Amino acid sequence: MRDPAPTGPGTAPRPSRGGRLPVRLDPVVGRQDDLRRLLEAVVVGRLVTLVGPGGVGKTRLALAAADALRERFGDAVFWVDLAPITAGDLAAHAVADVVGVRETSRPALADAIAAHLSDHPTLLVVDNCEHHVAALAALAHHLLLGCPALHLVATSRQALGVAGEPRWPVPPLSLPAGHGDLTGERLLTWEAAQLFQERARAVHPGFRITDANCEAVWRVCHSLDGLPLAIELAAARLRTHAVSQVAAGLDDALRPLVGGAPTAPPRHQTLRATLDWSHALLSGGERVAFRRLAVFSGSFVLEAAGHAVGLDGPAAPDTLEMLTQLVDKSLVLAEASDQQTRFRMLATVRPHAGQRLEEAEEREPAGAALLDRMVAMAEELEPQLTGSGQAPALARLDAEVTPCARRWRSPAGGGDARAALRRSGWVWRFWNRHGLNREGRAALDWAVVGGEAEPAPGRPRAPWGGGMLARMECDYPAAVRRLEASLRLYREADHRPGMARLLQTPGSVAREQGRARAEDLHAESLALFSGLGDAWGVVSA
Description:
alpha/beta; Rossmann fold; two-stranded antiparallel ribbon; about 5% strand; elongated
């Protein structure tokens, strides 16, 4: 209902008493800096859209801001929740109902809302706009033009796209990067830990973060990227689990995170439901890109994404366009630097995308495409790994190729051994740089045995790599067997560059064992490099 008629001539009616703000039974934890900056932005600007992934705390931050601005806007603070609204053309009706506009015909509804609010200072908060972006954008544009004193706050997983709209990313809660010297007291200075303790006490009143459990709490919060909803769901597990058990069970970030508060919205009762909600809002091409990007265990660049996403040839979705859309919809994060932009999925999002990838039976081809790119880049960088440009080459390997190394198919994982053999290249470097020598030896040995039918040019590098890893562990007999097998294959193919490079490794093994054969091996390497005109190889030999 409208308030009584205006008291002065030519004065528009005062908007009805502000819609009651949702009542939060649990306090807001942290976010004080975010809230302060948001209040400044709302007062200075006309429109602010809080964007971020599901469960990051957009609603709670908007609610805290609305509550803090009651004194400034008086009764004219309105809260509209669009989550229950299923049809976009009903979004304006939801706004009209909350602000007190009587039912009117649809074409005139936006005009009626604007006339009702007029030039009275008003704060309108519209929550959960992501499934009504187009309808809300049109309504917001109309109201901001027609109501000069209106301030609008929207929460959404993507921006509305209104001209002049500032996109306000809501970050995860703060957390230290490491836990090496943490104490319980220090950890509690970070927002993610504060939230975990607060929510844990709701199910386990005696719980507190101590020096004894602070590492486990850090592991929980870090594994969940500081995402508030995920942390709340993890804390709820303390009903039946110790915090160390919760931390140990987070390899699959989705599996244990069930059983949230029964009074929470259905899409927030489990992390899976929240992500299902986000996934349902994607277009067909966005869903394809979303699931295929699950092959990345860490950050990635646009070119790498193109190899994983572009499995369908000309029919593949445009990678840049799809990445842009997924960033806009808060399912992929973009991290820009002076050199390049890298992308990544939150740890809580990636398992959901991986499940979709399994359902589409695309994990094998997407992973294979990524490995092929890894090998191509490794081969491209190989000549630079021993020259004056080795530092940037190694940095590029670490950034671009190493994150793919764990996707190498091993004996336990099955797969195509011949294809693995063809991709072996210099992959041993990745296992070695990450302390995974035994895992690397097992995978390379499996590729050698299973890929015996592969033509000779594709076979020498896998036993060479296995020999290098065995040497790193000082397992000299195993190293010699593998290196000699590789050298025999290079000799059969009369591959002189391969022989020249390889001979130095058994030469070094023989030298470390104190054997005279070392001099002969290095001398042969020197002669081959001299004949090839390879100055760096000559110096090395």
